[in-house]
Amino acid sequence: MTPREANASDRERRDLVTGQVMDESRLIRFVAGPDGAVAPDLGRKLPGRGLWVAADRASVQTAAKKNLFARAARAPLKPSADLDATVETLLMRRCLEQLGLARREGVLISGFEKTGQAIRAGSAAWVIEAADGAADGRGKILGLARHAPSLKQGARVCGLFASQDLSLALGLENVIHAVLLAGGRADRFTAEMDRLAGFRPLRPPEWDRRPTPQASAAPPAAGPDEDPGGEP
Fold first, then answer.
1. What are the DSSP E strand ranges found in the chain?
2. Tens of pLDDT along 39-63?
């Protein structure tokens, strides 16, 4: 993330759909291409006049369907029919990139046992669980997180990414459980995730069920779904 992106909350822009003025961090910037296309500029650095839309699927769809990009640009723009899906895909990629950077900086810890230890220590800003991980291991981690100091201080749960996607992003094997430690990198990841939340849930709803007594009674130990290649 560039300094310009980090300081996005210091500036406000007007949403094309509602006319509401809000922080750049809550918006998606688009620019007009030479061929009349509308291109997402998630990094806010492409040349040209910015066309700003609230960071949620309904707003992007409305802006495209009602020709609001063309009206704002005063040019015959033709946004693609799947513009909202394109934005979602790009946001997913940016979130994974942030996790990769966090791992290289040493502020992302992976593996079943170490993830549990970090949660209990209250140092986790995010709990990252593979969407396709085993339910028993995930239940223990999430049960621990619900009762650990980190959750009360604002730790959040991400269940968007499959193990393969996490493994590729982190350069590890079989990543199932991880935590992103509190700090600047976690703040940047949060900013990307908050925008992505307007396009899809950050975790399956069933993950929010109350934990079982077994899940919260003791710190997790290495189990059959441990991430064997997940330690730096």
1. 12-14, 21-23, 27-32, 38-40, 51-54, 108-110, 124-129, 156-158, 177-181
2. 999 999 999 999 999 999 999 999 9
